[in-house]
Design a protein that fits this description.
The protein is α/β, with parallel strands linked by helices and 135 residues long. The protein has one domain: Alpha/Beta hydrolase fold, catalytic domain (Rossmann fold, 3-Layer(aba) Sandwich), CATH 3.40.50. Strands 1-3-2-4-5 form a five-stranded mixed beta sheet. Helix 1 links the parallel strand 2 and strand 3. The longest helix has 15 residues. It is globular, with a radius of gyration of 16 Å.
Length: 135
């Protein structure tokens, strides 16, 4: 079942694919699309299960596979431009990794306001090194 939502058509640039945040919707990417200009196609990857006819994905791998299939239905070859907001940044990261493992170029991976899960030891090291900048 399709998850791909055309947010902005037009132009001959490679499209930008935007992954939904926690809420599952993608229409909040409209201001970004307008800011990029009318010659930049923008697609959103909306979560399944927002309507009663579609069951939600139950595993990240399932979601990533589905989204890659949707992306490649529009653009079979790279370079790919991916954006993810908050939780969608992690999904975009997984998509980028999978595309690269398949030999495809990912020209942009933009993770907006995405929490990066560092191991505790790294987090402590970062705090020691830059903590004075935060205080």
């Amino acid at each position: 079942q399709p998850s791909l939502v055309l947010i902005q058509s037009g132009g001959n640039h490679a499209p930008i694919f935007c992954v939904h945040a926690c809420g599952g919707h993608v229409l909040f990417y409209r201001p970004l699309a307008r800011h990029l200009g009318g010659d930049q196609p923008v697609y959103g990857l909306q979560a399944q299960g927002l309507d009663p006819q579609r069951s939600p994905h139950t595993r990240i791998e399932e979601m990533v596979n589905h989204y890659i299939s949707e992306i490649r239905s529009v653009q079979p070859e790279g370079p790919y431009y991916l954006v993810g907001d908050t939780w969608g940044g992690l999904v975009a990261f997984e998509i980028a990794e999978r595309l690269q493992l398949g030999g495809h170029e990912v020209a942009l991976l933009s993770m907006l306001d995405t929490l990066c899960p560092f191991p505790p030891s790294l987090s402590q090291k970062v705090r020691r090194n830059i903590g004075h900048l935060i205080d």
